[in-house]
Amino acid sequence: MAFVASKGPSRRLHGVRRVWAGLSAGDRIVVLLFALIVSVAIAGPWLAPHPTMTADPAQRLLPPSLEHWLGTDDNGIDVFSRLLAAPRTDVTIALVATLLSVLVGAPLGVLAGLFESHPRRVLSLTGEGMLRLLDVLQAFPVFILAMVLVAIRGPGTENVILAVAFVNFPVFLRLVRSELLSLRQRPFAEAARAIGRSDLAAAFVHLLPNALPTVVVQLSVTVGFAVLLTAGLSFVGAGIRPPTPELGAMIAGGAKFMALGQWWVSLFPGLALGAIVFVCGLFGEVIGRALEPGASSAPRRRRAPPLAAAAAATNAPAADPQALLAVDRLSLIGDDPEAPLLETMSLSLRPGERLGIVGVAGAGKSLLLRTVLALPPPGTTVRGRVRFEGRDLETLPAAELRRLRGATLAAILPNAKAQLNPLVRIGDFMAAQIRAHVRCSEAEARRRAAKMLVAVGLTDPERRLDAYPHELSGGMAQRVCIAIALLHRPRLLVADEPTAGLDVTVQRQVLDLMLKLSKEQNVAQIVATRDLGIVAHYCDTVAVLEGGRLVEMGPVAAVLTAPSSAVTHRLIAASRGETA
Amino acid sequence: MTFAPLVQVAHLSKRFRLDRHHYVGAVNDISFTIGKGETLGLVGESGSGKTTVGRCLLRLIEPSAGSITFAGADLTGASAAELRALRPRLQLVFQDPLASLNPRRTIGQTVAEPLRLHTRQSAAACRAAAAEMLREVGLDASRFDRYPIELTASEQQRVGIARALVTRPDLVVLDEPTSTLDPIMRAEILDVLERMQAALGVSYLFISHDLTAVERLSHRIAVMYLGRLVEIGSTRALMRQQDHPYTRALLSAVLDADPTKPIPPHVVEGEIPSAVNPRDECPFVGRCPIHIPVCRDAMPGMADMGGAHFAACVRAPELVRGAL
Amino acid sequence: MRSLIYIGRRLLLLVPQLLLISIATFVLIRALPGDPARLELGPLAPQEGVDQLRRQLRLDQPLPQQYLAYVERLAQGNLGRSWVGSTEVSADLAVRLPATLELIIGGMLLVAVVLVPLAMVSAMPGGGIAGQLARKVSFGYGLLAGALPDFWLGLVLIFVFFSLLGWAPGPEGRLGILDVSPDHVTGMYTVDALIAGDLATFWSALAHLALPCITLAFVYGAPVFKMVRSSLESALKADYTLYARAVGLRPTTVLRYAMRNAAPPSIVMAGVVSGYLLGGAVLIETVFNLNGLGQYAVQAVTTADYAPIQAFVLISAVFTMLVYLLVDLAYFALDPRVSRGATR
Ligand SMILES: Nc1ncnc2c1ncn2[C@@H]1O[C@H](COP(=O)(O)OP(=O)(O)OP(=O)(O)O)[C@@H](O)[C@H]1O
Ligand code: SF4
Ligand SMILES: [Mg+2]
Fold first, then answer.
1. pTM given for the model
2. Is C283 a member of any domain?
3. Is residue A270 part of a domain?
């Protein structure tokens, strides 16, 4: 099998240094703490200031002092010294056991994953059988299983290792299997087959490396868990026995003194245990993050160059007395105050006017609409003003704002099927929406909901009310959203990509419906879309956004036939499938 | 323009079993050809079976029935080893560019991989060839060691195209290569595809629901509805005159960005029905504004409308005459 | 109809599962070197007794026969004898099971009334000072809970609340030394004391349960806590929540709907954790001297008393299987996408 261009050792070293450079201060602390634990596990016994295994009855149960920093135990052994010596036992057992369980579990996981979906029946049954066996194995609680295994095989380091490894290998088997199965669904797995890799080769070359971060995170969690398990076994006397220094046994040795007030014998080993487990867990997360490819350098948002047209458009007068909606020098500021997500935008809308908002992906269309709805994404700050029916949305009390939304200020968000809560019936949702705005009985609300469903062209409204969103098609879900938007005779309808994800023959039906209702009820609309065709035929005015700025705005006929900005030019050419 | 045949698909069907009594008729009895250096556009709405046709063509999924001949060889009967030998000549470009690239491999590794698998060239030679191909699709050498996530969507899709073209294939299936891109990126990618076809003489099966893109790139267009082929013809003929009511509906749904052009009247109501256990009838009958009782009797055959233009509608001749 | 079929199928699955569990426990003990009858009766038992048990267990016959004998014995409710205590294992279990149940139920109640609400509050944005405090507490708890060993935590609680503060009783068992256990009804002292109307005993039993239950809840509630918090957080960030707010639903309704989405994964996690609780009870009972199943098992392990070990392993596996059954059924009931299949 041909492996593609593996990196040389010199590059890898470079990689380690680069990873360190990419870590945050907190992550570096975690790495250093982990290194500390490893060094204590290696060198601890030699660093101990006092003997760690010889009893000295004269020194029994001394509290912490300058001589014995952490006191002595009931055998008169220095707790601090034993504490330095003990992690070697626990950490070694945990590491070896975890390694064993991943060495057994991971390849079995690959096999189970490959077998399960294999067309050969023998293999698929084998894969299935493996999993069912595992189910039964995992029905035995981990601690009990480990305890009984040690009881059967007798105490001793190897037996504890075997028991800990045995109870943990199913974790890796399942993890690798499920990672593999989900990675196989990803298009790059199919791409590997399309260029002629066999299933097995694709699994090892393309899939397994992508499962690595998850496995590494689990590995460190399991090491921590294995340390706890080892200590627990020793605590009940089914693991490592004294005099070998071991944390669980140390805690057990001090247990009866805890109730008597001699706390130091048990307290410190427990703290050490907690610290080891804690650091292991964090270390895994750090490594998992560092293993993500290109994690440090995702592409930056591109800012539009300053444009003369932008200045002109943003300074458009906002003081239109008839305006239904007036957006005045609106900015939205995210993480980087130097690069606002939306920059000093001004626009206004008269009653019944239909405004289209266009721009390439990431131009800020959705952000603008969310800000108009006074629902900016968390972590962002709004500057400037949005006035709706003369009221400043920013300063409106939350309760009044809520009463406005969904009533006179209606919204349609992209991909209707994702907008409707999968666990709430359409009828319940609509009734709750109605009753959140007008006083009426549940039955009355449902009647109104049903009427509105008919008005947007859905047949059999009763059945639709009883349905869950997954039982509707995309087109039906979109109609439901339109029905919800129109329940309370809105004056402004804010629609973000109202036809995205719909079949093309259904798109026209939805657009025509929105147009008809908007004309009948004199509803103003703001429609954000990537499709200039929609704007050309369903809007009166159009605003073009680029990089969070308003670069052009005007009547549709004027802007689309004689665009003044480069983006608009390019968008128009692109709508014909051409590059400008 | 006429093309020497490269691929012949005859009576291709694919059924996905759901349970003992139910199956999805994803593709039903479809026949078409693709010539050398030709682009066949395959249009249809979501779930019409376009992707399934493309995957069957590459034998990434096994067809249930029918035959596929590729460059004179029977693809349907090819063994796994024979198939692997054919892989460099049959390639695929995916819909979602980022997802189709292994996130842990650099762009260079990804594009060089097919060469390493299928040629005996040295690693250095493969890298050089990959770099050359990346340049041709418009990516500069500085991108070679980048990871997919570090590129823009348009650049990612160029990488996907470079990977498909690096082995100089005869046929590339393009499965909605532009549908996740914004309009400007879409136009860029169409440019690249067009240029590469001119340079390499490769054939494309261009799958898309975007009629504008299909019109621009394709020599001929095939229209699918609910797993059936309903119309096929040269791009020019089909754009001028649609002989199947569904194709008319599809075209009427396209809105031109020019506000001065009138919008076509919009002809169909309702939505696409389920593809589970399809009946032997015209698939469009439930939504067709001109359906008549015979439409339910059997799936209409492909009628020759002249000029290598075919449509599967019992009323196509009347439609053409303008009698409807 | 669909639901009935699902429930029926799921129940049927229990049969092979139980079968495999019984085989596994059977094999576990047979894997030991030595004579199973001798192991069960202990090193001190007379040879006649051992021979009699050998016949009963059909040890002279092939393994499948022995397995059948084992299942037959199980079916009669005979779990063998403990040679250390010279008692019927089934009788021992009947005495000790209520203590363990009391601990587990108490722990889960604490999780439900303390940890779950805390997790929910900390998942919600805003909430002023109280919300911030809840988030801080929950952050700290989330960090600590997975790392601290349960048996050590129990000891620390004893030291603080018994030795230092004197607020709680020491690790003396389920009741004080002078308390008399209430009349046996359920075997759970708190319940039995209430039934008997004996408030003093009730309080004593409750006080003795407090620290063990807190320990159990603190350690084993952590995964549930984290799941509730993260699933509610993501439900509140989901598109459908934004939409619910955008159309002006009341904040309480928005929250209620989001909670529906957080429920299924949380319940699955609670089920998985419940499966582990018997294992957790082992250590906690030992620390607090509660004389439940877990402590019984530990004693059996340290004295190589195999009949109780085998019985305990069997019971804990069956318990887990039943919990998983309940989880599956709950999930089925809660998520219409499972119960009402995707149709289009
Ligand atoms: N593995 C599968 N199992 C069952 N049904 C499937 C499977 N793959 C596809 N289908 C079904 O086959 C039909 C055709 O699907 P296909 O993906 O080929 O359509 P498409 O035209 O490519 O649609 P889109 O535009 O959404 O990509 C659909 O009804 C789909 O649900
Ligand atoms: S065959 Fe009938 S139903 Fe089908 S498209 Fe033609 S007229 Fe319409
Ligand atoms: Mg597709």
1. 0.84
2. yes
3. yes
